[in-house]
Amino acid sequence: MQLPIVQLPRAVPVPREREPQPNIPPTRGERERYKALAERYADTVRLVPPLTFEELRRHTDAVIARYDLDPRYRDFLAVLVNNAAWRDHLAAVPYERRLCSIQELQEEAERLGYAVLVAEGSAIVMAIIQTGKIDAIVGVSCLNVLERAFPYMEAAAIPGVAIPLLQDDCKNTSVDMEWIWDVIHLTGEDRTYRLDLDRLRENGTPLYIVATEVQTGREVLFNSHDRELDLLAALKASAALPILYPHPVRIGDRLYVDGGVVDAIPIEQAMHDGYTDLLVVLTVPKTYRAKPPGALERFLAARLLRPLSPDLERAFLHRHEAYNRALDLALGRRDAPANIVALFLDPRLPLRRLTTDTRLLKRAAIEMGRLIFQLFAGEEREPVELLHFVKRPDCGSTESR
């Protein structure tokens, strides 16, 4: 028997983070907050580009005053306000009519059809604009370079969005990579914007985000009401599945990966915190049992996880045990001091845990919703092993449906 050739994921080193320069907010969470407030302000006052330099300064000062922001970050905020004014206009320009001045995601930009310029120089950009072949610009550069380029962009009066580098020198500079990714993929067909993190923080019900600390291999819970938390980084960490995701996510001075490594279904943690009525939504059929890792998974864990932390490797190799313990709680096989309603995936749906086809996912979601409605509405139909009810011992016996 011929064994299949396995191509290992490329090991990506954990990026080292330098402290941003003094006129840029030091944490990712703060930068996300400034960006969200700039976009909120632009929507509220209905900014109409192109803004003159004086208008941009005036609106930036208005944002600082309205939201009580630190004036040290005025130049950084000005870039974000100008971006917010141009965002919808950029979205309306086809990829092949955009110029991208960027190195970090050059391959992706070229795949989309961008003209890519990997060079600094306003004169070069203006010369390209004057050819009439470019109708929008996405740029990545230092704050001081962006400020010098603004008069050229104002004169050209074409949509321009800029992502500031976090340091002005040319040595080991860093940038908020997700901002670049979002901007270069922005289209008029997709009007969805990034999750409103401020609204998420202000919601009265906290969102608990499960991650795994790399060094210890232990579960960590982040709380959306924690004002010091980089909320976007926490969400990204909770989905950074080892082996499939290129590197751990840094939050503060620690590294994190997907919380499912230790606790994919945090029922025990919820009960420990005092919750007595739980709705558990699962992406597996009711008959599913997690299996121990096979030879390939063990090899990949030794190759990619052990160098990060032996404890992380150990947690990854035993994750099936935690998963099955949680399933036993959801199915009433273990005593639980809580009322639990578990919603399972209908095994008849053509869906798997790693399905990425968006059309299939949407079709399955609609079908799943229809089946759930029928179950709760009491419509007569063939039984579906979709729901399972577990009552606390003091509330009667376990029931299932």
Description:
By secondary structure, the chain is of the alpha/beta class. It is 41% helix and 13% strand. It contains 15 helices and 12 strands. The strands form 3 sheets. A 4-stranded parallel beta sheet has the order 2-1-3-4, sandwiched between helices. Strands 6-5-8-7 form a 4-stranded antiparallel beta sheet. A 4-stranded mixed beta sheet has the order 9-10-11-12, with no helix packed on it. A hairpin with a 5-residue loop joins β5 (208-213) and β6. α2 packs across α3, α5 (122-129) packs parallel to α6 (143-156) and α12 (295-305) packs antiparallel against α13. The radius of gyration is 25 Å and the shape is elongated. Mean pLDDT is 80; it is low at 1-6 and 396-401.
Shape: elongated
The residue fraction in helices comes out at: 40-55%
Count of DSSP H/I helices: 15
- What's the Cα radius of gyration? 25 Å
What's the β-strand tally?
A: 12
Give the percentage of residues in beta strands. 5-15%
* Uncertain segments: 1-6, 396-401
Strand numbers in spatial order across the main sheet? 2-1-3-4
Round the mean pLDDT to the nearest integer and report it. 80
The SS-based structural class is alpha/beta
**How would you spell out the order of helices and strands?**
HHHEHEHEHEHHEEHEEHHEHHHEHEE
- Main sheet overview: 4 strands, parallel
Roughly how many Å apart are the termini? 45 Å
